[in-house]
Write a structure and sequence with these properties.
13 helices; 2 domains; binds pyridoxal-5'-phosphate; Aspartate Aminotransferase, domain 1; Aspartate Aminotransferase, domain 2; alpha/beta
Length: 398
Amino acid sequence: MEKLAALGGTPVREKKLFYGHQYIDDADIKAVEEVLRSDFLTCGPKITELEERLCKLTGAKYAVVCSNGTAALHMACQAAGLGEGDELITTPITFAASANCALYCGAKPVFADINPETYNIDPKCVAKAVTDKTKAVVAVDFTGQAVELDELLAICKEKNITLIEDGAHSIGTLYNGKPVGSIADMTTFSFHPVKTVTGGEGGAVLTNNEDHYKKLQLFRSHGITRDPYFMEKEPEGGWYYEQVNLGMNYRMTDIQAALVCSQLDKLEMFQKRRKEIVKKYNEAFSKIPEVIVQKEIPESDTTRHLYILRIKPELLTINRRQFFDYMAAENVCCNVHYIPVYRHPYYEKLGYPKGLCLEAEKLYSEIMSLPLYYSLTDQDVDDVIHAVTKIVENTRKH
Ligand SMILES: *Cc1c(COP(=O)(O)O)cnc(C)c1O
């Protein structure tokens, strides 16, 4: 590989920037401290408070918070009745959890290719992938931009398929004016520290369907219930509970719930800053012919979790890997979201071949995620733009 010094000069900045970082203030710390001094560290009032707040934020009837976004996806698949012999359609351009949730249930993940401009799953490819065995679709709001929900809902309704929206990136995003969380059959969130709102770890499932809601609650806590709705026998006394199913312990603690509640107080502030940064990047990069700006669909009012820079390697003397390394040499440490899920060794061993989703593989070879988070300063953003510009100017084909 070419030496990084090839670009010459000093790096555009001294301090390293990374692609994401949480923002924690004194109110967050106080909220956590209050729980630590209270009677309930788990199964307490903060869980109910967070669930109510998520319903209010999204307009969904029910929210079930849980230990993380992966658990949320597993719970949603379970509530959708996914099992042995069933198929679940998802995108290859996602974190592995969006497909792993099918495997947890004994079902088979089926990958449908992406739209090369929005990078989200292409409803036409979903329609083609549907078989008699398809039980669920996990559609990922990649970078925070809503998937084409109208088209996906139409396909799923016609074939009696459950639409699960993986909203790990998209809390706060609106689709046709309605918040993500109230539209698909079930929507999942993640509160991992790189996401827009964090609880350290944490997740949630939103739904308007009461049957799904009851199943989600049951599966979150061992399949054990105190709810007469589920009981098979007469209660033997005040202590009585029943295990009626095999569930997990996917509960969230009140410590995490308090942190997420406090972070939600700042959601508007987070959204505003993320949108400002995206606008600055878009303005700068749309003037550079060697790079591509992600297409925005008018239906989605997007709170962006990731900013993807896509290069046109055919116009440059370097490839993505070299571009990525040059960025790091400028102290802008990018990331790549995502390696197509089926290109991981585990999936290859299950028999998924290279070339399965060509648009996804092409995208993967041309992208990197730039820093995008609330506390980036204008100077940081300018430095990132400067780094990209410097590299393009030095590696452009003449
Ligand atoms: C982060 C993420 C998840 C998993 O969430 P965790 O809280 O880390 O378990 C699932 N899907 C997508 C698209 C994600 O980005």
